[in-house]
Amino acid sequence: MADVSEISPRDRAMTIQAKNQQPPVVTLLSKYLDGEYHPLKEDLRQFIRNNKLFNMEYSNLNLQEQRYLAHERAKAILRHPKCKNQLDEQVRGSLDFMKKNLILGEVFAFVDPSTNVKLGVMVFLFGGAIINLGSAAQVQKWLGPLKDLQYTGMFAMTERGHGSNVRCIETEATYNIENEEFIINTPTRSAQKMFIGNGLHGEYAIVFAQLILHNKSKGPHAFIVPIRNENGLYPGVTVVDLGLKEGMNGVDNCLLSFDHVRIPREHLLNKYADVLPNGSYVTDILKDSTRFNIMLAALIGTRLAVANHSTACMSVGLTIAIRYAHSRLQFGPSNKQEMSIMSYQTHQIRLMPLLAKYLSLYFTGRQVASLVDDHQTSGGSIATNREIQALASGIKAYASWACVQTMQICRECTGGQGYMAENRIAGLKGDVDVFVTYEGDNTILLQQVAKELLVQYRKEYTKGKFSGMLSFLTKAIVVSLQTSSLIPRMHSITSYTFQTNALEFREARLLQTLASRLANKVQKNGMDSFMAWNECLHHLNALAMSHVERVCYEQFVIAVKQCPYPGPRSMLAKCCKLYGLNCIYSDRGWYLEESFINAKMAKCIRTEVLKLCKETAEFSLEIVNSLRIPDNCIHAPIAGIGHDNTSWLFAPGADSNTDIRMKSKL
Amino acid sequence: MADVSEISPRDRAMTIQAKNQQPPVVTLLSKYLDGEYHPLKEDLRQFIRNNKLFNMEYSNLNLQEQRYLAHERAKAILRHPKCKNQLDEQVRGSLDFMKKNLILGEVFAFVDPSTNVKLGVMVFLFGGAIINLGSAAQVQKWLGPLKDLQYTGMFAMTERGHGSNVRCIETEATYNIENEEFIINTPTRSAQKMFIGNGLHGEYAIVFAQLILHNKSKGPHAFIVPIRNENGLYPGVTVVDLGLKEGMNGVDNCLLSFDHVRIPREHLLNKYADVLPNGSYVTDILKDSTRFNIMLAALIGTRLAVANHSTACMSVGLTIAIRYAHSRLQFGPSNKQEMSIMSYQTHQIRLMPLLAKYLSLYFTGRQVASLVDDHQTSGGSIATNREIQALASGIKAYASWACVQTMQICRECTGGQGYMAENRIAGLKGDVDVFVTYEGDNTILLQQVAKELLVQYRKEYTKGKFSGMLSFLTKAIVVSLQTSSLIPRMHSITSYTFQTNALEFREARLLQTLASRLANKVQKNGMDSFMAWNECLHHLNALAMSHVERVCYEQFVIAVKQCPYPGPRSMLAKCCKLYGLNCIYSDRGWYLEESFINAKMAKCIRTEVLKLCKETAEFSLEIVNSLRIPDNCIHAPIAGIGHDNTSWLFAPGADSNTDIRMKSKL
Ligand SMILES: Cc1cc2nc3c(=O)[nH]c(=O)nc-3n(C[C@H](O)[C@H](O)[C@H](O)COP(=O)(O)OP(=O)(O)OC[C@H]3O[C@@H](n4cnc5c(N)ncnc54)[C@H](O)[C@@H]3O)c2cc1C
Ligand SMILES: Cc1cc2nc3c(=O)[nH]c(=O)nc-3n(C[C@H](O)[C@H](O)[C@H](O)COP(=O)(O)OP(=O)(O)OC[C@H]3O[C@@H](n4cnc5c(N)ncnc54)[C@H](O)[C@@H]3O)c2cc1C
Question: Average pLDDT of A124-146?
Fold first, then answer.
């Protein structure tokens, strides 16, 4: 019914812009965002664009079909040379393993979250565990065939009874001297391994179990347990399909249980501890709890991957919602054309702070990956670097919550259209919701961050000089903590100085007050330390969040300053200021309580946030277009990218602007 | 694998308590919550409990099966005498129509949101439109067969091009004098009716179209348009299935378009305006915009229904999450039993403010229903009562956002289990998400509330005396607006006086400053009023939300005071204080800006909120159990109610507490 003449010039411009000719500022911004890995990224994006397998979308598929599609996509990706290489590079300890991981993770996240998670579980989670917890011989033995997809893996840590509290898992691995075997057993219902991904396909699982020697547990250790081969399940193994989930339905999550399953002694991953044939336990790390923490810590790569996955999904949602916001017209001044919904103040303040947050996370993710690479290539191990661990945990929590919030707002901002599965956001929303829970529940991760900050604070406080994650704690800040009026009022609220000081002050203050509250409870009042900790959980979480926000802001500022192109730089600078100021605005109750700002400043901050939202909205389309997400990954009609299979598709432009004719009759 | 000996005494107590013997306080609270309609509610709950149709759950059904089930359930409910009567009562204008509507809506919301919406669309939306917009003769003709389910209806207002901006819809109803017919036509693609519920089944639709006489539109009017009968679609009608959505998949939403569909003149709903056979237009309401507003306003019953639906869904989510929180153990002090997650401060502060908000909305919904009934039985019409309209819009927005937020938090609080479809929350989350969008997008509704507050303020300001929705504006408050220090600091922050004053002050202050900002922009600076309005959207929304919160708090206080049973009353009182104080706490930035509180008070408020969360958590299980949601409506294994069809079900108690044995080996 619609013909081309119904398309308004504005919308036509947008559609073309989105598809072909990008203005120079978009090209430059895109180049800067891609950074040193531009060729790799372009390569991968082209691979996705050209592969029909990635065109299909989930919304019309049933559970089995979704799983099949995710599996096929994962295999296609895993066969891509750049992806296959990644495991080798990890083994070799290549100079930029994490940075490349980030790129791969980001681009494949665009395809769909299930595919990304599925391929992660099949190969990287399993392979990563072996690389991090296994001996050189184990790596040698297991990695080659995995890389060639001769088998795929699973990662079985969580149990029905114990998710966050991994230390208390109940699965048992009892050593049997006679056959030099471990007996893997599920003693109770609550010991069943739960939510295990790739459960219907994987040939082997890394199973975490209490290592039992002489009837006593040495704590959780990781074992390679065969689950199935072409002839069926391994004797003693039971697998139950957990069925439909809120999202991630391309991933097959299962319940695994073990009835005295026998595995060779060599299947204990023995980098940090081993059991000799005679049943004696050997380890360099004497304390059970230290050993346990190191084992878990070795897995932080996947935590960073979840953070990056969250960030990438944010960009897909924002691209759809922002494109729609620029093309959807609704209401207007009397007798004039209707206005785009992007021009409404509420729409700006719903979407723009999230776009800014996305950018901050994007740059921070890249920076953390560099940090890890640098640390590892200089001979360090992330397993013992608690600072990086805390950062990874914090960013995972912050990014995944930002992602969930973004999807919700994108859904609401796209009205009824956003509720239709065809427009992608609904499905993404269900998928990303699990990010806040798996690879460490966010609430627990924040506690880890706070704990690490406290440890460092206590350690360095006596020295009077802070380094590492607390290196921002300069004399000026420490002094100001006593007086609460550090910030000379002469800095403009949009200056980096003001914003940096504000975020540093908050973190330092929350840390200092938390340390003294805990000390008070435990040392003065003799409270049990577990109980004292629990009485401060709210405070702890606030501290951890403020730490992550400070880091993200710092990284954003660095990224702005390093941008060599004036046009993109000034766009990024606006977004960065919006990010910083909005962090302060959202927590202005706290800043006012601490007299860091006064009432007049608080009001100015609100006015400025609204202004920055309006200004960033004006070039928001350029920003999302510069992300260069392949069209077949966006596949949302309301973002201007139709499907073959939808008779009712809505492309922006095709439908608007006809009301002008109608109005003449009103 | 689990046997009874594995169940801890605590969990066993809980399971029994949830199922059979309730402590007296639960019975009394339940009685008070049900109120005067206790027998009706008990009747309906029993009907649901006893009907196998309501046992099945959606998670294993495909789109067609979900639709079929919702349809069958809707029919079963509509045949229930109490439900059938409702349409008669609406026609007769019974004394308590709205109150009963609320009860029916609440109880059937428990079944599943799709069923509730489906039955609403089939009968009540269509029937309501006829009752509100049709003449007595039209009501007479159409209602009987509808009630007997001889046909079902649809409600077709939204178009592809116009959702929120209904005035600009493009569907045309052109009068043809010769045949005394209207020609219903879809002139452009953007004029297609979109998202229309019951689209694959309904025989008739209420279609909103521009009434065109002599080539000029009289604005949108409602028409009854035949869509299909047993022989197929009516000539000229096209229906396209919109397929899968984020949720509400039991409801079949479609695209409808009309190619010169002919309908008799008598199919114009003509209570407020009519077209005579000779083509002349007759109406008592001369202004097009007034007539349009009255027509829309007549439909506010459905807006209240969405608010109540949101509230009811909150209670289902909270019941599941709170039961799980009391039974799920995770972590604990060393060498002691693990603690329930409900005992963690973060868990308390995530869930308890929402439980309190739920209760405030529950009481407010009941009160608004009474208000409508009283107004109508005293001869008033809600179509012209802008105060009630604004209240309905505000509560719809507030309740639906509260519901979406609640489902998200309940999902996160139930960890990985909450992500499994079997545990119900995931599905509910997708369903309720549409509440923020349909029956008026929340952002638009808040603008209506603010507009009405401004109208009343301007009207009454000159008189110096406020009534209706502004009757709280006493002299004391008006004076304090100038000085910003109304509240004598002697009232305790947990007192009703302090909390009431705080909420009233905020509303009054936001209203006063908004009025003067707008006046400044328009009168002083000569800005276009549409543009001035848009520059204040953020302020407008804050005002509208503060209005609703003030009203909800007031109603909660009244409900506490009226509760005759001491035990339940003191529980409700705590929740009410938590609700009020948390409203203030969440907006403490604003209160500090306005010097309504000082920094010291702000800190006390946080401490008190945390304390109230802890105290309410202790009896939160009693509260959710007193809601008496039928087990077959909860059907979440983690809430202690298993399914027949899940081999891996998780019932609280069945799995916990085995770690004590294990720990001895650690
Ligand atoms: C789709 C999906 C895929 C998964 N894939 C895998 C996999 O492949 N392999 C694997 O091993 N696991 C997997 N998991 C499991 C996942 O890692 C766990 O769900 C996660 O660790 C949380 O554990 P839980 O679900 O038992 O929640 P719990 O730990 O029971 O937590 C429940 C709630 O209590 C709160 N809580 C708990 N303790 C505290 C505390 N001390 N203080 C404050 N709050 C607390 C939490 O914040 C949470 O809200 C998967 C999960 C899902 C949903
Ligand atoms: C599942 C479902 C069932 C439905 N059933 C029916 C039905 O049976 N019958 C029927 O007639 N309709 C139905 N609807 C349609 C529904 O009422 C509309 O989706 C709703 O009115 C919003 O309109 P829209 O989707 O066009 O969004 P738009 O009005 O285009 O709004 C899009 C976004 O822009 C924002 N926005 C728009 N204008 C402004 C402004 N002036 N200021 C600030 N922000 C603005 C909104 O807040 C929103 O976020 C249904 C919708 C759904 C999703």
Answer: 95
